[in-house]
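Following up on my earlier message about iron/sulfur cluster. Here are the inputs again, as you asked, copied directly from the submission form:
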Amino acid sequence: MSEVTRQQRRREARERIKVGRHLLGHGLPLQPRTSEIVAIAQVVKAKLDEAGNDRRASEAAELAQTLGETSLAARPSTQQKIACTRGCSYCCHTFVAITPPEVFRLAAAVRAGHAAGMTPDVVRERGRAQIGVSPEARIGGKLACPLLVDGGCSVYRFRPLVCRQATSLDVAVCIDEFEGRNLNAQIPISGVHLQHASNAHITLLGAMRAMGYATDALELAAALDAALALPDAEARWLKGEDVFASVPRQVKREARLEQAISHVAAALV
Ligand code: SF4
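Thanks, got it. Here's what our run produced:
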């Protein structure tokens, strides 16, 4: 690549980052332009590329999660009535798959004592019953997420994007799944929450893919166990070590989402 082209690309990245930071502070519309998603993904990529920062993966997750929150606050769901209430935790008993940076953010929150004061060992012990149980076997199995305490998420501020989008419009369907009944029923969820979380996911996964990181979603309990087992798991993962080698992953992602992630990754400089 010529020096001029390199300089142009650097300038382009700087301009995008400026736009991206502005958007991060104001949130995205429900149907953002591709250029807006790419601008934010450029900020996330710059974070993932930060030299000498061993926390840059969890900090990238924080950027994406904050984007989801800011976007929702700026453009909340007004049409659909959300059935979720405080203490309702049926969805915290299902197979939950999250991105590696989000696993590291959860692990950091646990280490810092934000998970209702639970130590890493306690969280690992609580997760043991879930590890190795297939998504199908989870239905009706009533196995709680290791971070669920007294019916509430102990790391609410740090919870992954997939948990942020789990907003049911019909609690009866959630109860059916929790009890292992009516297995073909689809839980109706808020389109607004889903779209904001999905946009945030695309910025994070697009940046990860552009940096050459695997974008598979990892089963929460097993991934958190792996991240808590090694004090320097995040630093190792950033260096390319597969610290999640034994963790089940969700291989199938919606084609539309997969395409959007690749499209954003290809557009990043
Ligand atoms: S991280 Fe929190 S919201 Fe997500 S499944 Fe676990 S307890 Fe529930």
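One observation from looking it over: The two ends are 13 Å apart (CA to CA). Hope that helps, and feel free to reply on this thread.
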